[in-house]
Amino acid sequence: MRLNELDERIVHALAEDARRSYADIGAEVGLSAPAVKRRVDRLRAEGAITGFTVRVDPAALGWETEGFIEIYCRRNTSPEAIHRGLSRYPEVASASTVTGEADALVQVFASDMRHFERVLERIAGEPFVERTKSVLVLSPLLRRFSSGAPS
Amino acid sequence: MRLNELDERIVHALAEDARRSYADIGAEVGLSAPAVKRRVDRLRAEGAITGFTVRVDPAALGWETEGFIEIYCRRNTSPEAIHRGLSRYPEVASASTVTGEADALVQVFASDMRHFERVLERIAGEPFVERTKSVLVLSPLLRRFSSGAPS
DNA sequence: GTTGAAAATCTTCCGCC
DNA sequence: GGCGGAAGATTTTCAAC
């Protein structure tokens, strides 16, 4: 699938503020409100836009501690097994299999350091996990867009 | 700041679909539409909700290659300098200063491997960057919520 | 927090290019 | 195929309670 420049500008406008009116976005990109809606509907149908969500301040919601956990798996662990194992943790915000020494990189939000430690220990104890290596986030500098499915 | 259970349920509903109407959310949590709006307005004013955004499928938008770059900075580089340097790259989706050997962890989306390599080289050439270490994402397993500021 | 009304927006339809 | 204008339906918004 290929998007033209108009679609990209619409997605960009929605990424900055998904509650802007179609007429408002249309004024920016040079289209009428119905034309913008039609394109957004098409982008949703095609799967380019998977939904609309709210941007939250984790700290304000009580998730003050953020970190990344590199997971080193046992031999013959499938990505599906990692997904199944990690999706049970509400603290896991994102996870991907990666190249390099580690097998997966997991982003975790916890309420505080003790909570983070507890999550880390539980993940490290998963049967498919051989060992872990983790770093804590000091300050979030930049967060731009949201991708993927809600859960 | 502390949110009560009603606020959390409203944020949760918006996280799943930020375009649901206030009346619809109100029916779920047991409030009228204006009551829900007032709480959302308050959450925005307090900073718990920092905005509304669209959830996109990076691959559908042509961002097929994802990776993480660890940045090792020169001495006396402030987080603000890193932020200024990285915010110019549209390919940078998120960035945080972290504990451990590296100084910052940067998430990058690129159209393909050549594009990723070009971004990596440009970032590695930034004056505040001493060296970098990067991993490529093989498969995104899980992506849950969006946090932080738009840019 | 609720109700009710006004204003804005969304959504669909239709004619046009 | 896509676009703009206009209609009704829905939602947002702001009163008063």
Structure write-up:
Chains A, B: Keywords: DNA-binding, Transcription, Transcription regulation. Chains A, B: InterPro entries: AsnC-type_HTH_dom (IPR000485), Dimeric_a/b-barrel (IPR011008), Tscrpt_reg_AsnC-like (IPR019888), Tscrpt_reg_AsnC/Lrp_C (IPR019887), Tscrpt_reg_HTH_AsnC-type_CS (IPR019885), WH-like_DNA-bd_sf (IPR036388), WH_DNA-bd_sf (IPR036390). Chains A, B: It comes from Streptomyces klenkii. Chains A, B: One of its GO terms (biological process) is response to amino acid. Chains A, B: This is Lrp/AsnC family transcriptional regulator. 2 copies of one chain form a homodimer. The mean pLDDT of chain A is 94. A 4-stranded antiparallel sheet of chain A has the order 3-4-2-5. The two termini of chain A are 24 Å apart. In chain A, strand 3 and strand 4 form a beta hairpin. Chain A contains 5 helices and 6 strands. In chain A, helix 2 crosses helix 3. Chain A folds into 2 domains: 42 residues, Winged helix-like DNA-binding domain superfamily/Winged helix DNA-binding domain (Arc Repressor Mutant, subunit A), CATH 1.10.10.10; 80 residues, Lrp/AsnC effector binding domain/regulation of amino acid metabolism (RAM) domain (Alpha-Beta Plaits, 2-Layer Sandwich). Chain A is elongated, with a radius of gyration of 19 Å. Helix content of chain A is 36%, strand content 32%. Chain A is an alpha+beta fold and 151 residues long. At the A-B interface, helix 1, strand 1, helix 4, strand 3 and strand 4 of A face helix 1, strand 1, helix 4, strand 3 and strand 5 of B. The first copy, chain A, binds a DNA duplex (17 and 17 nucleotides) through helix 3.
